[in-house]
């Protein structure tokens, strides 16, 4: 097959030509490559901070009855270590890597929404600073990274640490969701011609699925922490059992987020390994379809396993068994992947570069962590080992021995592309061996500590036989691991200065990012090679033996998506989950009879029904407005827009009147759980309506200023969709609260 | 290592024995799987390593049959594990069918132990007769705790607003260590307790002793200690049956001297340790809810002497 | 009565059910010249499950004793039997007279996935409304209406995925979203039922012990009304979602196996292409 003329997909944009130099250029950048690097540098700083926190804890635990850290300091340390590593290191590192690589791997010029991309990044240092500001404001949170209620309520967690924790997670959550929406829109709409979804590199596929996981899981966390915040500051009792609240509901809500979260931290690592292993084994991935399908399986099942974190709660055997079943099931697709990666190596010509070494270590370590995870799925075993150091060993094996080793592999693999220089293989091997020995020394013994009865989150322990020695060994391993990170840093800095120049494709890899210079130019590609299979560069280098064409020569995906539409729909999906959680909370608390105000005593469905009709009418008017705009009737468009705003405002006015009437009768948000859930649910809905009205006002201002060209119709469609969504949510809220459906 | 004990694998009750058995079984299967993966990877690394000058091997994209094998295989294994789980749950956590024999209430950072049939109240130490299967009701007075005696019973949370139950039984007379296994605040580490299983006769003797109210002070020096208890705020938190049972915020002291540990396990219960604890509890268990009352040494001496009579 | 005795004795040899099963097999056989094919296998599976749903001890349990047994019936009628029947139909082009004329309205519904989705998910939710749930258990005619409507709505729901009229199937990717969103719908329902302290179907709180098996159920099996409702909710949720997941994976496989060269090459094919 002869080379067909490549497609010229991007031209130099004005921004590219004037990409600023110096600090300003970096701070003001919207280029995905720079943003990716900013992510990685920021997470590196937080990684060191989280690592130091870990080492301080290990010093305290090295001997029994140690007094290096006070109990309170230790408790703050483990809370900050967990929160930092999860939200400020692992998630943003993977997102940052995706930010850099995904547009390159799909032959695009940049992400779908470059400015949103910049915002997503800047929310990371903002959130990190917010979290760490707590140290100056009375103390860091000391409730553990999952902040179980009622320990996190204001009566027990008396400093404002938990508040900073809450606010920073909200900020970071917005950043993660925004980045995911961006990735979804980018992957679905900006692929180079010929790059159908079935031809996607597995890293990109995993990031696509992972982004859906993020937009679906994070709202559950947001709902939970919002409710906690309201409890702490408005005197409500969502999670205070002493006043009718439920501590167990916190666990349900949190783990509904928390379990998908661990897959959010694992899937991109799987993606990295799926890129690294084939290249260094010199073979395509074994069973691409199965690896892709198993990713979907993991994503789907990850929402159905959360209560395996709650086997010790006493939910009852039926519930425990169902979640045990799903938790065991989720092992199967993960196993498929591990076998696929192993089988990829067979028949290959494996080069044990540092990246490959880290990838191989990942395979074994992740398997160990996954297998210890299976032991947790067998409920009676969980009843012994949950809450102990066996659990700490398990999750460090999957998150550090797994995800972090994969990240190290990714760093060694893609550093040449990002910087144009190779990392030193000599230093890399030292890095690898110290990391391997350090990691396994630190964490393997912890399995035994758990079986010996050592609970987690203890600042010290009694001097029982063997406990001191194993803890000391673990501490030594941790320091060795810390040393290996220092070696990595040294390697990075030294190679930046004196590393061997890399060239376009130092590893002879096959995906699109290697088809451009190292580092890539501002516009990423001058020419994108023709894409017929999953390894375009292989096809180019081996015209006599190209990969089989995936999906036929003229393959198209069968759908064309528009990026704004994808963006707004993804956003609405995430908002739906948020409202769903609040509605479920409402249903949960109001299914018992309680003292104090009730829907019957407090509400007037008929009057609110009229306001509801106004809101529904506003949906109709904005739909009409869209049609008028498309038909070019701009005057009708403007007036219909105004009518929509008017109807929306009438609705808000009606809500306001309702609130005032209720306050007048002496009912407040903390009067009882009905009042609390009522105000929370309708309040957030009202907030969304107000935001919609503001957006519509901006649109109207632009419309009346005559600034409406054809291109703006996308904005109108998107805001229109948001407005319909807000109305649809109100229909559900109205039915549940006022019409008492489901109760 | 001498004396190293893995209580999870050293079960002393039928329930934990069934768990240990199950655990071993599952671990063996998992080790097998790990060996297969290590074997696959190791073999691949050795046999298929790059030899200088070799070209890229011909592409191989997959094998549907292999995929089926390593999908069906794990499914069969997990079906087997699931069956084991169903059986194991029934064996190690049978349904409750009567009133509880023991009630344990978790507090920040101590354990309130009540014997409902006799009205005995103690703290941080549980006595049970050997060989009898007792039903324990678990509650919490503040935050979530987790009741765990690795050698004797499964772990179960104590959640405010919720009542849980667990079976407790010991095969042989001994002292078993228990602890809180859910982070519950600053002194979660020192929320430990003991379970002392003894022969039914010994247990009955203990129970009868515990039922008695506190010994009245025989000498004046002892009486001073009682007065300090009554007047210097101790009585606001600690009960002593026979003197005052109004308070419930701190461990019952009626038979304090008969117990083995102090402060949730941070100190062994000796006269010297009691003195040091009373002098400044915060020095041993910083953050615990008993403040440093700044008593003088004579006061502490009197108080300690009084408490030592509370056998 | 022991468990074994119950499972042996509590079969309901309802004439209507038997007649429907036999008639279906006969009609199917007649139209396919009584050839034994894989499609016939699907039909047989569907008929057997249909029979089990309505005639086996499951029906006896669902008839006033166990809410969870009732949920199991719903699950089978809505999510398992209709797709099996649909899979047994041989693919054919849409008949001409279906697209015009009297059946046009039905064709419109079948062609619009959104309508089918609402029929499927809505049907599941509808029959859980306490009033309707109780009515179905107490009144025989409403009960029959429930069965028929569940089968019909199940058929409508699965139509866009496995319709024998291939042109009316939606694209695999859209199908995956269709099924995933339905899974969310049944998840919410399942969660609400599982965690609701209020009885969804209050008639099961006080079963009338016609068969004398109440002690068996409540003591030996440990299924108190509270546990029973929890189990019912879990059934609506986990197994239902797993069925949707199977559909999603079937679609995934269909999507990846679509027109064009296969991306998975077997060893022998590779050897052949290299001329060994």
What does this structure look like?
The complex is a heterotrimer of chains A (743), B (311) and C (276). By secondary structure, chain A is mostly helical. Chain A has 23 helices and no strands. Helix content of chain B is 37%, strand content 19%. Chain B contains 8 helices and 12 strands. Chain B has a 5-stranded mixed β-sheet. In chain B, strands 4-10-9-6-7 form a 5-stranded mixed β-sheet, with helices on one face. A two-stranded antiparallel sheet of chain B has the order 11-12. In chain B, helix 1 packs antiparallel against helix 2, helix 4 (220-231) crosses helix 8 and helix 6 crosses helix 8 (297-308). Chain C has helices spanning 3-9, 15-31, 38-55, 57-62, 67-88, 96-99, 104-111, 113-126, 130-138, 140-162, 172-195, 214-220, 225-256, 267-273. The longest helix of chain C is centred in the last third of the chain and has 32 residues, at 225-256. The termini of chain C are far apart. Chains in contact: A-B, A-C, B-C. At the A-B interface, helix 4, helix 8, helix 9, helix 10 and helix 11 of A face helix 1, helix 2 and strand 9 of B.
Short description:
In chain A, 68% of the residues lie in helices and 0% in strands.
Keyword list:
heterotrimer, A: 743 residues, mainly alpha, 23 helices, 68% helix, disordered N terminus, B: 311 residues, alpha+beta, 5-stranded mixed beta sheet, elongated
Structural class of chain A: mainly alpha
Summed up, the helix count of chain A is: 23
Topology of chain A as a string of helices (H) and strands (E) = HHHHHHHHHHHHHHHHHHHHHHH
Report the sheet with the most strands of chain A, covering strand number, pairing sense and barrel closure.
none
The percent of residues in helical segments of chain B reads 25-40%
- What is the rounded Rg of chain B? 27 Å
Shape of chain A: globular
Largest sheet of chain B: 5 strands, mixed
Strand content of chain A: under 5%
- Arithmetic mean of pLDDT of chain B: 93
Total beta strands of chain A:
0
Biggest interface reads: A-B, 94 and 91 residues
Count the beta strands of chain B.
Answer: 12
Number of distinct helices of chain B:
8
Portion of residues within helices of chain A: 55-70%
Strand content of chain B: 15-25%
User: Which spans of chain B of ≥5 residues are poorly predicted at pLDDT below 50?
Assistant: none
Return the average pLDDT of chain A rounded to an integer: 93
The radius of gyration over CA of chain A amounts to: 27 Å
Q: Helix and strand string of chain B, N-terminal first?
A: HHEEEEEEEEEEHHHEEHHH
Give start-end ranges of low-pLDDT stretches of chain A.
1-18
């Amino acid at each position: 097959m002869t080379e067909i003329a490549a497609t010229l997909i991007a031209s130099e944009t004005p921004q590219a030509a004037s990409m600023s130099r110096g600090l300003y250029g970096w701070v003001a950048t919207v280029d995905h490559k720079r943003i990716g690097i900013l992510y990685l540098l920021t997470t590196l700083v937080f990684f060191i901070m989280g690592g130091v926190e870990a080492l301080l804890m290990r010093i305290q635990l090295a001997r029994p009855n140690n007094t290096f850290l006070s109990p309170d300091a230790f408790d703050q340390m483990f809370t900050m270590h967990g929160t930092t590593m999860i939200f400020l290191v692992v998630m943003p590192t993977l997102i940052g890597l995706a930010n850099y690589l995904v547009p390159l791997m799909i032959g695009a010029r940049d992400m779908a929404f470059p400015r949103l991309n910049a915002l997503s990044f800047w929310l990371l240092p903002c959130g990190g600073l917010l979290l760490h500001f707590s140290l100056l404001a009375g103390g860091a949170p000391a409730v553990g990274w999952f902040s179980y209620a009622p320990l996190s309520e204001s009566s027990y967690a008396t400093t404002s640490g938990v508040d900073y924790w809450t606010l920073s997670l909200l900020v970071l959550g917005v950043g993660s969701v925004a980045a995911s929406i961006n990735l979804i829109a980018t992957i679905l709409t900006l692929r180079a011609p010929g790059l159908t979804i079935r031809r996607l590199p597995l890293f990109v596929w995993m990031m696509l699925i992972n982004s859906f996981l993020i937009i679906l899981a994070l709202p559950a966390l947001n709902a939970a922490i919002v409710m906690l915040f309201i409890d702490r500051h408005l005197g409500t009792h969502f999670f205070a059992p002493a006043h009718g609240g439920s501590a167990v509901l916190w666990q349900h809500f949190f783990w509904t987020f928390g379990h998908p979260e661990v897959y959010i931290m694992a899937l991109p690592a799987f993606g990295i390994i799926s890129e690294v292993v084939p290249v260094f084994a010199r073979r395509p991935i074994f069973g691409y379809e199965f690896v892709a399908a198993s990713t979907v399986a993991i994503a789907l099942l990850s929402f159905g396993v959360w209560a395996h974190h709650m086997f010790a709660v006493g939910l009852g055997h039926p519930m425990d068994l169902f979640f045990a079943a799903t938790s065991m099931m989720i092992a199967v697709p993960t196993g498929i992947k591990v076998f696929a990666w192993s089988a990829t190596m067979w028949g290959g010509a494996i080069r044990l570069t540092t990246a490959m070494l880290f990838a191989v270590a990942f395979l074994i370590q992740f398997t160990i962590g996954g297998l210890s995870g299976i032991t947790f799925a067998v409920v009676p075993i969980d009843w012994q080992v949950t809450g102990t150091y066996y659990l700490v060993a398990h999750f460090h094996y999957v998150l550090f021995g797994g995800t972090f080793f994969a990240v190290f592999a990714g760093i060694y693999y893609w550093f040449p592309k990002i910087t144009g220089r190779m990392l030193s293989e000599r230093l890399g091997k030292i890095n690898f061996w110290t990391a391997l020995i350090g990691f396994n020394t630190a964490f393997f013994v912890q399995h035994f500590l758990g079986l010996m009865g050592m609970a987690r989150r203890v600042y010290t322990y009694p001097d029982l036989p063997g406990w001191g020695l194993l803890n000391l060994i673990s501490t030594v391993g941790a320091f060795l691991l810390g040393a290996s990170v220092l070696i990595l840093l040294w390697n990075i800095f030294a190679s930046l200065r004196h590393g061997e120049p890399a060239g376009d494709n130092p590893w002879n890899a096959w995906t699109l990012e290697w088809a451009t210079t190292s580092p890539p130019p501002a516009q990423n590609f001058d020419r994108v090679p023709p894409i017929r299979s999953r390894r375009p560069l292989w096809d180019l280098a081996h015209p006599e033996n190209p990969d089989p064409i995936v999906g036929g020569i003229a393959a198209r995906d069968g759908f064309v998506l528009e990026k704004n539409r994808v963006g707004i729909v993804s956003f609405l999906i995430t908002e739906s989950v948020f409202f769903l959680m609040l509605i479920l909370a409402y249903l949960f608390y109001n299914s018992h009879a309680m003292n104090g105000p009730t829907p019957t005593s407090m509400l007037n469905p008929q009057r609110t029904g009229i306001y509801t009709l106004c809101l529904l009418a506003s949906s109709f008017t904005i739909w009409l407005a869209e049609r008028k705009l498309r038909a070019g009737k701009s005057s009708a468009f403007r007036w219909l827009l105004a009518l929509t705003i008017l109807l929306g405002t009438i609705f808000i006015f009606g809500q306001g009147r309702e609130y005032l009437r209720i306050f007048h009768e002496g009912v407040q948000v903390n009067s009882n759980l009905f009042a609390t859930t009522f105000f929370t649910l309708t309040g957030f809905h009202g907030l969304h309506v107000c935001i919609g009205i503001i957006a519509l006002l901006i649109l109207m201002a632009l419309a009346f200023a005559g600034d409406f060209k054809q291109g703006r119709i996308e904005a109108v469609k998107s805001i229109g969709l948001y407005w319909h969504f807000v109305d649809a949510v109100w229909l559900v809220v109205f039915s549940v609260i006022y019409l008492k459906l489901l109760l | 290592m001498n004396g190293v004990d893995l209580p999870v694998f050293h079960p002393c009750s039928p329930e934990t024995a069934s768990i240990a058995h199950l655990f071993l079984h599952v671990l063996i299967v998992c080790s097998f799987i790990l060996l297969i993966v290590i074997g696959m990877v190791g073999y691949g690394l050795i046999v298929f390593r790059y030899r200088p000058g070799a070209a890229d091997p011909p592409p191989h994209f997959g094998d549907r049959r292999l995929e089926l094998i390593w999908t069906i295989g794990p499914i069969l294994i997990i079906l087997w594990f699931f069956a084991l789980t169903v059986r194991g749950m029934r064996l190690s956590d049978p349904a409750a069918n009567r009133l509880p024999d023991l009630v344990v209430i978790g507090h920040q950072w101590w354990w309130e132990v009540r014997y409902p049939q006799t009205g005995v109240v103690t703290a941080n130490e549980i006595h049970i007769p050997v060989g009898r299967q007792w039903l324990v009701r678990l509650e919490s007075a503040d935050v979530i705790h987790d009741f765990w005696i690795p050698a004797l019973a499964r772990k179960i949370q104590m959640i405010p607003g919720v009542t849980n139950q667990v079976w407790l039984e010991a095969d042989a007379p001994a002292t078993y260590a228990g602890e809180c296994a859910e982070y519950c605040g600053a002194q979660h580490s020192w929320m430990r307790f003991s379970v002392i299983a003894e022969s039914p006769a010994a247990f009955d003797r203990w129970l009868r002793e515990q039922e008695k109210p506190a010994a009245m002070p025989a000498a004046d020096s002892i009486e001073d200690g009682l007065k300090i208890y009554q007047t210097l705020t101790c009585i606001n938190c600690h009960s002593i049956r026979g003197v005052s049972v109004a308070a419930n915020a701190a461990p019952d002291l009626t038979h304090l001297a008969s117990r083995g540990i102090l402060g949730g396990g941070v100190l062994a219960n000796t006269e010297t340790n009691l003195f040091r604890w009373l002098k400044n509890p915060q020095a041993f268990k910083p953050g615990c809810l008993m403040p440093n009352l700044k008593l003088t040494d004579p006061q502490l001496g009197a108080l300690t002497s009084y408490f030592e009579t509370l056998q | 009565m022991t468990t074994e005795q119950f499972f042996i004795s509590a079969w309901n040899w309802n004439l209507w059910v038997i007649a429907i099963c036999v008639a279906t097999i006969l009609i199917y056989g007649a139209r396919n010249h009584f050839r034994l094919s894989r499609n016939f296998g699907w039909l047989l599976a569907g008929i057997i499950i249909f029979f089990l749903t309505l005639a086996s001890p499951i029906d006896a349990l669902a008839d006033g004793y166990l809410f969870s047994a009732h949920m199991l019936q719903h699950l089978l009628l809505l999510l398992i039997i209709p797709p099996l029947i649909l899979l047994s139909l041989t693919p054919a082009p849409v008949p001409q007279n279906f697209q015009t004329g009297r059946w046009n309205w039905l064709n419109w519904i079948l062609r619009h996935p959104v309508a089918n989705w609402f029929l499927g998910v809505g049907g599941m939710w509808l029959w859980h409304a306490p009033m309707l749930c109780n009515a179905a258990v107490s009144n025989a005619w409403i009960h029959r209406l429930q069965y028929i409507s569940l089968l019909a709505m199940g058929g409508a729901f699965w139509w866009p995925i496995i319709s024998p009229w291939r042109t009316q199937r939606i694209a695999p990717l859209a199908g995956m979203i269709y099924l995933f969103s339905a899974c969310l719908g049944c998840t919410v329902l399942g969660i609400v039922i599982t965690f609701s302290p209020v009885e969804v179907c209050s008639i099961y709180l006080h079963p009338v012990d016609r068969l004398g098996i109440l002690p068996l159920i409540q003591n030996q099996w440990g299924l108190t009304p509270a546990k029973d409702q929890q189990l019912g909710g879990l059934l609506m949720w986990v197994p239902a979602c797993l069925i949707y997941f199977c559909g999603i994976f079937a679609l995934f496989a269909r999507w990846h196996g679509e027109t064009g060269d296969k991306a998975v090459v077997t060893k022998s094919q590779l050897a052949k292409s290299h001329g060994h």
